[in-house]
Amino acid sequence: MKVKTILVSQPAPKAKQSPYFDLMDKQKVKIDFRSFIHVEGLSARDVRNQKIDFLSFTAVIFTSRNAVDNYFRLAEEMRIAIPDSMKYFCLSEAVAFYLQKYVVYRKRKIYVGTRTFDDILPLIKKHKSETYLLPCSDKVKPSMLSKLNELDLNWEKATLFKTVISDLSDLEDVFYDVLVFFSPSGIKSLFENFPSFKQNDTRIAVFGNSTVKAAEEAGLKIDIAAPSKETPSMTMALEKYIKKANK
Fold first, then answer.
1. Strand order across the 87-90 sheet
2. Which residues of 192-210 are buried (b: 16+ CB within 10 A; e: fewer)?
3. 153 and 197 share a domain?
4. Would you say 233 and 219 are in contact if contact means Cβ atoms under 8 Å apart?
5. Does 24 share its domain with 101?
């Protein structure tokens, strides 16, 4: 069956030059974007209940923009002045660049990984004497926590925001040829919004092993999976499938 319409369960790209827009132009398909989940920040009271004192740490590990936003939002709400001596360990250049929204680069000690959590671990290991805070969501990966434990660090996690299922009731009578998912939470959102969802001829695209597992456990048939050596990105995986399906 041909592919004409795709729904990506994420917000629309802000950059004008997105591979999704290129895919639309090249393959003549319609791609819509809709967040199946969204993030809500916790309150200062929630953080205090975790017995977390931002000033008792000398370094912060940032794995996402949400972590950056909520760390500094809560610091402001709790009237905490983050000292200039604080060290920041960022998962990627994108996260480090986003940090500039809150701190002046030249006045801070910032350490940057290349892409994955494993990439930043050697940098953290070099500074084992620091006391680390990991701002995270309620859906933090257990593997991330175990890897920090393996380094024998003085560290704590602080749940500063949570992942919430979005209301998708307006999509009840809208059908797409392909649904694209990037997290188990997205799969969960699909079935919480539409408990009687039947896949029928809808193709399912998933990114990452945890999403594959969640889709399979939900009884979905996976038609498109990324990343792989041949298709490291979701847009590449979609394009490969569309070229074959739309011959």
1. 37-41, 154-165, 131-137, 59-62, 87-90, 109-112
2. ebeeeeeeeebbbbbbbeb
3. no
4. no
5. no
155 in the same domain as 207: no
Arithmetic mean of pLDDT, 223-247: 96
Distances (CA, A) of 133 to 53, 59, 227: 10, 6, 30
List Cα–Cα distances, 214 to 187, 193, 227, 229, in angstroms.
7, 16, 16, 22
Q: Which amino acid is at 45?
A: R
Q: Which tops the pLDDT comparison, 115 or 106?
A: 115
Boundary residue ending a domain (145, 163, 181) = 163
Structure tokens at 116: 């994955």
Q: CA-CA distance, 10 to 186, in Å (whole number)?
A: 9
Q: Which amino acid is at 223?
A: D
Q: Mark whether 59 and 147 lie in a shared domain.
A: yes
Q: What is the C-alpha separation between 146 and 121, in angstroms, rounded?
A: 12
- CB-CB neighbours of 122 under 10 Å: 10
Domain holding 237, by residue range, is 5-36+169-245
- Do the Cβ atoms of 239 and 23 come closer than 8 Å? yes
Supply the pTM of this predicted model: 0.79
Reported as a single tens digit per residue, the pLDDT across 145-169 is 999 999 989 999 999 999 999 999 9
